[in-house]
Amino acid sequence: MELVEAIVLAVLAASTPLLIAATGELVAERAGVLNLGVEGMMIVGAACGFAAAWLTGSTTLGALCGIVAGTLLSLIFAVMTLGLAVNQVATGLALTILGIGLSGLIGARFVGEKITPAAHLQIPGLTDIPLIGRILFGEDAFVYLSLALVVGVWLFLYRTRAGLVLRAIGDNHVSAHALGYPVLRIRLFAVMFGGACAGLAGAYLPLAYTPFFIPGMTAGRGWIALALVVFSSWQPGRLVVGAYLFGAVTILQLHAQGAGFGIPSQFMSALPYLATVIVLVLISRARTGGSTAPAALGTVFVPDR
Amino acid sequence: MRKILIAAAAVMLASGASLFSASAAEKLKIGFIYLGPIGDLGWTYQHELARQALVKEFGDKIETTYLENVPEGPDAERAIEQLVRAGNKLIFTTSFGYMDPTLKVAKKYPNVHFEHATGYKRDKNMATYSARWYQGRYIQGQIAARMSKAGVLGYIGSFPIPEVVSGINATMLGAQTVNPNIKVKIIWVNTWFDPGKEADAAKALLDQGADIIMQHTDSPAPMQVASERGKLAFGQDSEMIKFGPKAQLTSILDTWAPYYIARVKAELDGSWKSEDTWGGLDSEMFEMAPYTNMPDDVKKMAEDTQAAIAAGKLQPFKCPVVGQDGKEVDCKGGDHLADDQVLGMNFYVKGVDDKIPGK
Hints:
The complex is a heterodimer.
Chain A: H1 2-30, H2 38-56, H3 59-83, H4 88-107, H5 133-137, H6 141-159, H7 161-171, H8 173-178, H9 183-209, H10 221-231, H11 236-258, H12 265-286
Helix pairs in contact in A: 1-6, 1-9, 1-10, 1-11, 2-3, 2-4, 2-9, 2-10, 3-4, 3-9, 6-7, 6-11, 10-11, 10-12, 11-12
Chain B: H1 2-24, E1 28-33, H2 43-58, E2 62-67, H3 75-85, E3 90-93, H4 99-108, E4 113-117, E5 126-131, H5 133-147, E6 152-157, H6 162-178, E7 183-188, H7 195-207, E8 212-215, H8 221-228, E9 232-235, E10 248-254, H9 257-268, E11 276-279, E12 286-288, H10 296-310, H11 339-343
Parallel strand pairs in B: 1-2, 1-3, 3-4, 4-5, 5-11, 6-7, 6-8, 8-9, 9-10
Antiparallel strand pairs in B: 10-12
Helix pairs in contact in B: 2-9, 3-4, 5-6, 5-10, 7-8
């Protein structure tokens, strides 16, 4: 039973950065902007978040700095794709390359330093409940924040007028523009939100997951977050399922190896990706006709003057 | 006045002469291809330290360049060729996966000398070098068996290639000299570097009852996890004691500097030859970090083993080596396994209760 608890705790920790980054990207994509620079924004968030936490000794300031760094980087993307109507795919890829280089530069001074990892919640009585205590009441703030973030985004998208406008812009920016909605301004906010989330997700890695900074430590998590958005068919609820499923398969395959199930580890390592592909196929089969992607996703918008 | 003019002319001549000689004795350009970032605190970092040692040793006689984060595989060819075109005459490609790309470029440029780390393909202008880390892992196995209360070691592997497999076997052979019933749990993460995944693997091993963490991956994350949980661990490639002051038992330190200096010296005096260097504790190809967080008698045992291996008195793969199937492995090296058998090792020794993935 203790093993089950340990596995669930590890799954939550492994899934949280994916969930945070994917939630941000989901909002941007719902507004019709495809930002492939998640990995770059994450790693810069990691470097800046660690730097701030190390200098000030505060996890909160570290997280804030990660958010700001991710947002600033997303502004570069916004200027290029919204302001100058440059191709989104190319700009996003360039942003990732820029981010990886930049993070190495910012983080170089901090490699080999350590910080105290983010504190875990401790409620006397509740946290000590066997089995579920630590899972429900003993996580670090990022885990709760990530879930609050998803709920908030869901409420925003489906229960507010602004959310409706954002989705409309993502589906048909020309019509939305004709109706008088500020397409570019709303997309700017969506891109910035995506950057902020990616920065926070990146900061989670050195602040809570593995409390040190090393160049390249995101190790492709930004790309997985991008895949999760597609996996979720752009719906926040499914995103939670996808992120935890991915985290669960990742952790379980490690445990299966340790327990010596005798299944080749190469297959086990591919399992999370295989699971993603299978679910994607099932989703598309269950739907009758038409893509679930925002219709205007990835297309540039130049308002007529 | 005339004297002054002559003096001025002499100065000019002298400076002209020195300028001339500087350009005549052209600097030796040396290039490096790195797998990770130089700040990885592991594999690449140790190569970078050796490069810095070269600069310190030879000063302005050489000029070094490095390319970091170069992916293994065909893509590396472009990076290596780039170094050749930039005029580098001696090029170190520092990871196993650069083997074929290096060979290809070496065939194309016979006047450039190449040094490939940890591979087995050579050419007239392409040498190989590696270290007998399995010797260090044998020592670690002995320490681990002494320090483990549970009798279960947790081993994080990168890829099931012979180097990693021979490391697991050497660890077990060492451990079995102390505790014949020692067990090992192995998790392959299929990456050399992913701090998050390495940490998760370490957690999984500890959660499953292992109490010593050994890693053949590059980040200090497993060490840090062991440290947080109050367990013990071995570092990898570099000194990781900072990440586990109360956890690190020792670490195999890659010390490339002596080899790099010797090879550059040879290149400078024209005696460079394509060779296969596979050095161990006797030839400073690697070192053991100080033995820490263990009682004095365990430390003494480790030091004695280290001395015996360095003196050639102890062979980690001393025959008979028994495979998982209970059969003795052919002994091709006299009283121990031949180098080829270690370099191509694709079986587990008896006592490893697992299968090599994909076999």
